[in-house]
Amino acid sequence: MQAGKPVLYSYFRSSCSWRVRIALALKGIDYETVPINLIKDGGQQFSEEFQTLNPMKQVPALKIDGLTIGQSLAIIEYLEETRPTPRLLPQDPKKRASVRMISDLITSGIQPLQNLSVLKQVGQENQLPWAQKAISSGFNALEQILQSTAGKYCVGDEVSMADLCLAPQVANAERFKVDLTPYPTINNINKRLLALEAFQVSHPCRQPDTPAEMRN
Amino acid sequence: MQAGKPVLYSYFRSSCSWRVRIALALKGIDYETVPINLIKDGGQQFSEEFQTLNPMKQVPALKIDGLTIGQSLAIIEYLEETRPTPRLLPQDPKKRASVRMISDLITSGIQPLQNLSVLKQVGQENQLPWAQKAISSGFNALEQILQSTAGKYCVGDEVSMADLCLAPQVANAERFKVDLTPYPTINNINKRLLALEAFQVSHPCRQPDTPAEMRN
């Protein structure tokens, strides 16, 4: 049941969507984007049509091979298993463990605490300090871990799933004005990643739904 | 560098620790428990010794094969890759995608929003409604997803990583007095899981650090 091009339900500024866009770009998978605007009309992710597709009412979701998958890491692991080149997980199980630990640290330990729906709940005036605390306490741990795992990238010298989580999280940190000075390892890896084509074409500032004033 | 028995840093009531304890039990891996009391002494996870081990200051962490891994799913995936029997991920990539999607939905979409450190931040009087909202909104999505993936368990008729996430999350739901009536599929799967030996021996009420009054 191969049903043509994969379709990615995405929002330009969603860090979770960006993770998947990088994976698709690195693996050279051609796909269509259906933009889901998380702000407009009270949030298009709440539409009945989208909820049928992803009951979590979150982006990203990927329609591929007759299947719809939600959750960015589940999508990336599926792409890795079905389109293994280039690899986003190292061959050595211990290095794979490091990649997954770093990925999970970001996707479970940082991002959920500073996403749109949580920030709505904490109230306008608390949003910035709340997000900053979540990100800096995660980055404190991450900086320490990377000191023993990193080479050019998060784990050794090959781009991995961990890097697909790192760059979008640093972009969020910048949006929330987190001081990155205490995190030189994170900062340097991020710079190297942003120089790669797959990170550039998938960047929030270059998506079909990026507003004109945010493009570059 | 096989260095004797694996060591699990665990807290009896931590749902993330319980996920890993179930994996260890199912795979018949003998291990030692080092209890980390998340409440006592202001939280033993904040000790310098533990932070060196897991900079995220969270349980679980598993020392195994000369490696220390944090993040429950990274641990479970490592166990699956190095001790594949019995399998906790199906062979079919599409079913694996469902298992990972459900696991990530719980571990990124529900648990982080109702964990101890977040609840401390929202303040005593808001804790219960905050946790209930996080769990019920996640369970609404999960109930809908399970209707197309579940057999006896979360995905088909074999216990998988998704089930290792489900039972501990239902236990949290009960602690936070979430009404489970709207979630018959979740409820039924959970009952089947709790009847299995691996879920019983790993249960929060039977750990070395379970206080006497909570044992049974």
Q: Strand order, biggest sheet of chain A? A: 2-1-3-4
**Greatest interface by residues involved:** A-B, 44 and 44 residues
* CATH architecture tag of the largest domain in chain A: Up-down Bundle
Number of domains of chain A: 2
Share of helical residues of chain A: 40-55%
Task: Give the number of DSSP strands of chain A.
Answer: 4
Kindly report the average pLDDT value of chain A.
95
Q: How is the CATH topology of the largest domain in chain A named? A: Glutathione S-transferase Yfyf (Class Pi), Chain A, domain 2
Ends apart, CA distance between termini of chain A? 38 Å
Tell me what portion of residues of chain A adopts beta-strand conformation: 5-15%
* Number of helices in the DSSP assignment of chain A: 9
Q: What's the overall geometry of chain A?
A: globular
- The topology string of helices and strands of chain A comes to EHEHEEHHHHHHH
- Quickly name the level 1 CATH class of the largest domain in chain A: Mainly Alpha
The biggest beta sheet of chain A reads: 4 strands, mixed
**SSE class of chain A:** alpha+beta
Gyration radius of chain A (Cα, Å) is 17 Å
Poorly predicted runs of chain A are none
Quaternary organisation: homodimer
Overview of the molecule:
2 copies of one chain form a homodimer. With 216 residues, chain A is of the alpha+beta class. Chain A has 2 domains: 7-86, Glutaredoxin; 93-199, Glutathione S-transferase Yfyf (Class Pi), Chain A, domain 2. In chain A, 50% of the residues lie in helices and 7% in strands. Chain A is built from 9 helices and 4 strands. Chain A has helices at residues 15-26, 48-53, 72-82, 93-109, 116-122, 127-149, 161-175, 184-194, 197-201; strands at 7-10, 32-35, 61-64, 67-70. A 4-stranded mixed beta sheet of chain A has the order 2-1-3-4, covered by helices on one side. In chain A, helix 1 (15-26) packs parallel to helix 3 and helix 4 packs antiparallel against helix 6 (127-149). The longest helix of chain A has 23 residues, at 127-149. The mean pLDDT of chain A is 95. Chains A and B meet through strand 4, helix 3, helix 4, helix 5 and helix 6 of A and strand 4, helix 3, helix 4, helix 5 and helix 6 of B. Chains A, B: This is Maleylacetoacetate isomerase. Chains A, B: Residues 92-212 form the GST C-terminal domain. Chains A, B: Pfam families: GST_C_3 (PF14497), GST_N_2 (PF13409). Chains A, B: Residues 4-87 form the GST N-terminal domain. Chains A, B: Its cofactor is glutathione.
